[in-house]
Amino acid sequence: MTKSSALTKASPASALNQASPVLEHTRSFILKLEDLPREEGGISLDLAELKSCSVLLQHLDADYEMYIRKECSGETHTYFLTRKNGQGISRYRYEVNITEEQFDDLWSDSGYYSINRYANLCLCGAVIEINTLIGEIGAGYLLITAKFDSFVGAQSFDPPEWFGWETTNYY
Predict the structure, then answer these.
(1) Burial degree of 113 (CB within 10 A; 0-12, 13-18, 19+)
(2) In b/e form, how buried is each residue of 119-155, taking b as 16+ CB within 10 angstroms?
(3) Could you tell me where the beta strands, DSSP code E, fall in the chain?
């Protein structure tokens, strides 16, 4: 079954048209795991001490706008279909919960990646999410997402040097 026929069969994509858009303001950075400091501003950044959940994510289109996601925290598994419109700091996110069966219908064994997502931390004037990239692509790297209440807050953010290379405008 192709992804497009799965979308038609499972129908979660049509639900995205009914979802209320959320305007997100974020900046993203990528750095080597070894460059993550042990603490920042008195907050531990030791990944062994931070709460995390595992995430499987797969893009469904070449533009990286639509994707499915499975989040696992303990015994709880939650499934989502998400579409993000736009590029850069401010983008609209449309998201709906989907069933495990719908997720499985859309899933392919190629082109996915796995991450461990660590707790949102209030750090450096933003809410910071730290993701470790798992697997052949990205092993040994972290993706840091800084979340803001406004475009101005995101634009004026002065990230610490250890945040690494900014990838905000690349997807």
Answers:
(1) middle
(2) eebebbebebbbbbbbeeebeebbbbbbebeeeeebe
(3) 22-32, 39-40, 43-44, 52-59, 66-73, 76-85, 90-97, 112-123, 126-134, 141-148, 165-166
Q: Using 50, 70 and 90 to split pLDDT, how confident is the model at 171?
A: low
Q: What is the pLDDT at residue 41?
A: 86
Using DSSP's 3-state secondary structure scheme, residue 101 falls into helix
Contact of 7 with 84, CB cutoff 8 Å: no
Answer for the pair 43, 121: CB distance below 8 angstroms, yes or no: yes
Q: State pLDDT tens for residues 10-25.
A: 466 677 888 889 999 9
CB-based contacts of 101: which residues, under 8 Å, 6+ apart? 10
Dihedral sign, Cα of residue 19, residue 25, residue 31, residue 36: negative
- Per the CB < 8 A criterion, the answer to whether 42 and 157 are in contact is no
In angstroms, the CA 60 to CA 164 distance is 28
**Which amino acid would we find at residue 29?**
F
In whole angstroms, what is the distance from residue 125 CA to residue 109 CA?
Answer: 39
